[in-house]
Amino acid sequence: MKAIKRKPVVMDVANQIRAAILDGGLVPGSKIAQDELAAELGVSRLPIRQALLVLQREGLVFLDHGRGAVVAPLDIKFISDLFDYRAVVDGYVAAFLAARRNFDPSVLHRIVREGRDAARRGESRRDLIMEFHTAQYEAVGNQVLVRIMEPLLDHVQRVVTFVQVSTASRHDRHRRAPSGKGQPGLRSQMDTWEEHAEIAEAIAGHRVGRARALARSHVERVKQVAIPFLVSAAAPHGKSAPGRRARTRELARTSSLVRPVTFDSSTRLK
């Protein structure tokens, strides 16, 4: 057998569709035009269909015989349960690492430094935020934990994107504060990285109880903002924030669609 020099096409397609869903380019409840997508990516319909099957198992896409492929709506109950589950897991992970005398926290400190620098420039680096958490999961050394949490973090990112897009004002679209502040509804980027820094310091200092408490409260604070916002957005007469009104109305409309979410973590593509 010869070594494969590049990823199969279906993996590339799935990664691009996933990125569009997580970044809000494909909004919840919207239909995925498979012919247009195939033309845009320069592939046939077959890898598009295969990629959508992968994303369906991750809970990001629904395949409906009547409507075709649809971006999965935001399921408020599922998201609420997800935050509760993640608070327990993140608390356990932080405490586990804090109790390990041979754990090297330098990777966490490096991510925090890069995150703070980005926040000072007014940049939103969700990739660094995800890296901060996945680095902890991987450091535990439990493969099951990593495989379960990676796709769940995708759903968290969808919610964060939803809140940010739906509450963005005209001022935020054209101007970002140098301090890294200015994310309506959610804590500022700088505040987020200060919380991450506290978690990293507690882990590095082997303060088990503090690490667990900080990690849990970090997740719970996001939930306290996100869930009421989703409930409000799903209300029949909810109003969208200034700016991006058409897109926000679509997000608010589709967020009220509740369906069971199923995913298979073994299908996550790199």
Describe this structure in words.
The chain is mainly alpha-helical and about 270 residues long. It has 2 domains: about 10-70, Arc Repressor Mutant, subunit A, CATH 1.10.10.10; about 75-255, Four Helix Bundle (Hemerythrin (Met), subunit A). Helix content is about 65%, strand content about 5%. The chain is built from 11 helices and 2 strands; from the N terminus they run αααββαααααααα. A two-stranded antiparallel sheet has the order 1-2. Helix 4 packs parallel to helix 9 and helix 7 (about 145-165) packs across helix 11 (about 245-255). It starts with 8 loop residues before the first helix and ends in a 15-residue tail after the last helix.
List the topology elements:
Elements: H1 9-22, H2 34-41, H3 45-57, E1 61-64, E2 68-71, H4 76-99, H5 106-120, H6 126-140, H7 143-167, H8 170-174, H9 189-204, H10 208-234, H11 245-255
Antiparallel strand pairs: 1-2
- State the CATH architecture of the largest domain: Up-down Bundle
Question: Helices and strands: which structural class?
Answer: mainly alpha
| Count of helical stretches | 11
How much helix, percentage-wise, in residues? 55-70%
Instruction: Report the sheet-strand fraction.
Output: under 5%
- Distance separating the two termini: 22 Å
Strand neighbour order, sheet with most strands: 1-2
Poorly predicted runs are 177-184, 237-270
Q: CATH superfamily name of the largest domain?
A: GntR ligand-binding domain-like
Gross morphology is globular
Q: Strand count, sense and closure of the main sheet?
A: 2 strands, antiparallel
CATH class of the largest domain: Mainly Alpha
How many structural units, i.e. domains? 2
Might you state the CATH topology name of the largest domain? Four Helix Bundle (Hemerythrin (Met), subunit A)
- Counting DSSP E segments of at least 2 residues, the number of strands comes to 2
Radius of gyration: 19 Å
Sketch the topology as an H/E string, one letter per element: HHHEEHHHHHHHH
- The average pLDDT value, as a whole number, equals 81
